[in-house]
């Protein structure tokens, strides 16, 4: 055998050996990732054995309102908590499950430990990994005592026999085992711990915001795999597939809550309106179904906690890098004419609005957001804030879909986003056309 052939043979062995090592390492990585993504947190014992206690059930009913459980677990026109509500995602459609105490189709056969495991570890009774459209990355912070109260309440409601609607996810997202690797990257079971340096109200607010009310599920941007970005918590973001923008809850000025008072925040959460803006789109449903029923103390605690959040560097960068469209100056005159003809009577010559009937546009978070979708949707489709005990007869805005062209809507939204101290990117007719055609 020549030296060159011996050299090639030796090189071949090293290549094969290297490939084997890489394969083994890859398999070990896959096994480790699957183990990490399926590992359970230690079981916390139940806080009671009497789940028929009326006081516990009443408390659970309140917590179910705080968690807005009814919205996702009730189909439109369907029976409460019987499931079937479609939850669109970039990966396909998921459907809310039946959580009534029906033995065959609901959670009637679940124990309190099974229920806590779903909230805390994101696993069903049979060990299936749950899709994070069920916000267990937030609910994992719920205490065992509150989980037991929720369980008691759900056991007390009428059982409904309704089979769960199968999810319609694309491959590979329809393979549940793949969730293990998602969880390995993005989920760790957690528990809320009070900050001894803060008072009881702020700790209560932190517990609600980061747990049951799962604010981060909408108000945090997501990555390409649907996980909330840990470096941008509550920094605002477009809600996938719903075509609405959830503004930042950080203390940025003017694009966050930095200029809001706790009272203004609490008013929006409790009534759907405040001097600084109006709840619309998905947030209107959250206020209507959930937040309006919270106690004044809990709403105040949430507002106080949100005011302690620092500025978000992510939001500051997004606001500073927003592109100003070429030719926007030419749209301002057209937009001003439309505003004066259609909008000024309600929203005022300086965008000051008329509280409580008509929201202000100057300094409005939705108006100034990096994504103009909320303002475009409002002009195209109109809408109402939620009807609440604090605002039982809300004033509405008419739709201009039939009367304004794409160019007109783009011009008036651009004018609003560039006037009275607002400084946000211009809107193009193509932006408007996108949202006109999806309805």
Describe the protein:
- The chain has 439 residues and is mainly alpha-helical.
- It folds into 3 domains: 133 residues; 119 residues, Cytochrome c-like domain (Cytochrome Bc1 Complex, Chain D, domain 2); 117 residues, Cytochrome Bc1 Complex, Chain D, domain 2, CATH 1.10.760.10.
- It is built from 19 helices and 7 strands.
- Helix 2 packs across helix 6 and helix 8 crosses helix 12.
- The chain is globular.
In short:
By secondary structure, the protein is mainly α.
Return the structural class: mainly alpha
Residue share in β-strands: under 5%
Distance between the termini: 75 Å
Number of helices: 19
Instruction: Going across the biggest sheet, name each strand in turn.
Output: 1-2-3
Instruction: Compute the average pLDDT.
Output: 91
* Mass-distribution shape: globular
Indicate the radius of gyration in whole angstroms.
25 Å
Tally of structural domains: 3
SSE arrangement, N to C: HHHEEHHHEHHHEEHEEHHHHHHHHH
List the uncertain runs: none
Q: Count every beta strand, where a strand is a DSSP E run of 2 or more residues.
A: 7
**Helix percent band:** 40-55%
